Amino acid sequence: MRVFVLLILAAxxxxxxxxxxxxxDEAVKASWAQVLNVYKRRADLIPGLVATVKGxxxxxxxxxxxxxxxxxxxxxVQVNPDDxxxxxxxxxxxxxxxxxxxxxxxxxxxxxNLKSDQAFLNLQTQLEGTENRITVERERYIQSVRxxxxxxxxxxxxxxxxxxxxxxxxxxxxxxEREIQDAPSIDFSQPAQSKPPGG
Length: 199
Fold this sequence. Notes:
CATH architecture: Up-down Bundle
CATH class: Mainly Alpha
Helix content: over 70%
Shape: elongated
Number of strands: 0
CATH topology: de novo design (two linked rop proteins)
Strand content: under 5%
Structural class: mainly alpha
Number of helices: 8
Distance between the termini: 67 Å
């Protein structure tokens, strides 16, 4: 009789969306882990980039310090993706780092020897690839959160979510939605655009 009751209970949980909520929650966690991985990859590239630029452009100390400080700030943020305020602080720190990197990349146009340095070219390729991965993984995370949030809002999943304490999750939001869609341009082979630094 006990086994029969457990089987009935399992069927009811499955039918009311419990298993689907579990799957979507795990998908969000996996997507978030990938977001963190690509942001960490970018942070790991920055010391080499700063050191290489410094070898050719020591007079740009203010910009180099700005990038280093922005990277340090990113490392200090303790993010909880289930907390909107924490996620916003993480996004703000990452945005400041992106702006600092943009300013650094603009000034490299003034140093032709730097643009032909092999170490710099390798870093350019890696950074460009990483920026593209950030865009891709961020979009996958946004989609995972969207799928999860729909599941916990729709009937009968909303009843199951309420019963087991599953709530909607915050997602990435930015002031300029277009900005989050496009990876920064870091093609050093082209002349600098008339775009303001950090924009």
